[in-house]
Amino acid sequence: MTAGSVTVIGLGPGDPRYLTPSAAAALAGATDIVGYGPYVERAPLHAGQKRHASDNRVEVERARFALDLAAGGGAVAVVSGGDPGVFAMAAALFEAYEADAARWPDVAIKVEPGITAMLAVAARVGAPLGGDFCAISLSDNLKPWDVIVARLKAVLTADLVIALYNPISKARPWQLAEALKLAATERPAGTPVIFARAVGRADETIRIVPLDQAVETAATADMSTLVMIGASATRLIARAGDLPFVYTPRSVGMRP
Ligand code: SAH
């Protein structure tokens, strides 16, 4: 039997209009959809496709399963929210593949990009990523908390805007507040902090608070929230009847 393919597909943040035409075409051509349950549900239905929903914390196992299906001839779509390369399934797939490449010699692997949460959030509030920025996953499931703190300190010193993915979960209730307290030691009290929950979905909520109120707002965050901490130049532009715009100028130390 000819080996098939695995395409790791980004579904975007939630609004189906944010799915790229290229990702939609890859989904339409798939024989099998593999992924964490809620993402599999978000993939548009196509007749004759098999759906394999799995639990959240089994990424490498899921990747091996997808590669095995493809070795048997399937056109397998592995779905992720946002972009599949950002704290998601594309790296898990390569971890599985690298560990056992000889098992899937002829499987074609491809990655279809999607709009990652921080870009959707940025567009929703203005242009907070207009200067230099970074993304950090606050989850200490895959790296020690010490490493996260060291990285936070480094990027706080570097004055980058920080997008915090995976800010909080039932198993990790205190890390977000710690990160925000650390930020408050390095950045002015008025620095804008964005709490953006479920962007692009029906239950979207966005809060913009100054850094000195961010710890108390942390209690409103959950697993669907992205937290963005401004840099020293990040500022607000008030708007009547809506949240202010948040933006970071492109220039540093020069007249814009
Ligand atoms: N691959 C995904 C990120 C996976 S990590 C992407 O590119 O967006 C999961 C984290 O992403 C969540 O804890 C949250 O911080 C963020 N996230 C994903 N979708 C989001 C959305 N619609 N709104 C806000 N944050 C989101």
Structural class: alpha/beta
Bound molecules: S-adenosyl-L-homocysteine
Parts with pLDDT < 50 across at least 5 consecutive residues: none
Instruction: Supply the number of helical segments.
Output: 8
- Radius of gyration, CA atoms, in whole angstroms: 20 Å
Give the CA-CA distance, first to last residue.
Answer: 61 Å
| Sheet with most strands: strand arrangement | 3-2-4-1-5
Largest sheet: 5 strands, parallel
How confident is the prediction overall: mean pLDDT?
Answer: 95
- Total strands: 13
Strand content: 15-25%
User: How much helix is in the residues?
Assistant: 25-40%
Query: What overall form do the CA principal axes indicate?
Result: elongated
- What pattern of helices and strands is seen along the backbone? EHEHEHEHEHEEHEHEEHEEE
Key features?
256 residues, alpha/beta, five-stranded parallel beta sheet, five-stranded mixed beta sheet, 8 helices, 13 strands, 30% helix, elongated, binds S-adenosyl-L-homocysteine
Sequence-ordered SSE layout with sheet pairings:
Elements: E1 5-10, H1 21-28, E2 32-36, H2 37-42, E3 50-54, H3 59-71, E4 75-80, H4 89-99, E5 108-112, H5 117-125, E6 126-127, E7 133-137, H6 145-157, E8 161-165, H7 175-186, E9 192-197, E10 205-210, H8 214-217, E11 225-229, E12 235-237, E13 245-247
Parallel strand pairs: 1-4, 1-5, 2-3, 2-4, 6-13, 7-8
Antiparallel strand pairs: 8-11, 9-10, 9-11, 12-13
Helix pairs in contact: 3-4, 6-7
